[in-house]
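With this grant's support, we have settled on a layout for protein records. An illustrative entry appears below exactly as we store it:
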Amino acid sequence: MQKRLPDFNALVRLKEQDLTDDEIGAMYDVKGQAVNKALTLGGYYTQAVSREVIEKGIPWTVKRTEGAGSHHNTYLGKAVMAYLRVAMGDETAKDSHRLAAKRLRARLLRENTVIDYDPRTKDGFKLVEREERDGDLIFRWPADRALPEGKVLDAITLSDA
């Protein structure tokens, strides 16, 4: 049987270009499952929480552009991404990410706020006063969106810990 996929490092570089497993698989005439398996066996998915998984915890499609204008690059946007990485157990999160996550959590609790998002604004993400409907979530979850389950739901729920 002939090897169709490139080595592990090449797969990681492709993932870092925001390609999905299916897109990478199509490049090598294999299914996305084969790419996922290779990345899992190499430790990519067990050590780092992928952007794809993190974005399952965010109830909005966040504006992403090159350079200025990307809501992922705002102060609060970066803090949200860091928080989710740490909350989902990303072992590769840097100390700066852990500190940003800790500060965001403390601020949400101290100010009794949640994170909301408006794609039409300059910064996108904003903190708004917590309402009863927010429960213990870190986000103002849209009523028309189903809540995620499992690890993702745990990550977006403020615990007493």
In short: The chain has a mean pLDDT of 85. Helices lie at 8-15, 21-27, 32-41, 44-47, 51-56, 75-87, 95-111, 150-155. Strands lie at 113-117, 125-129. The chain is about 45% helix and 5% strand.
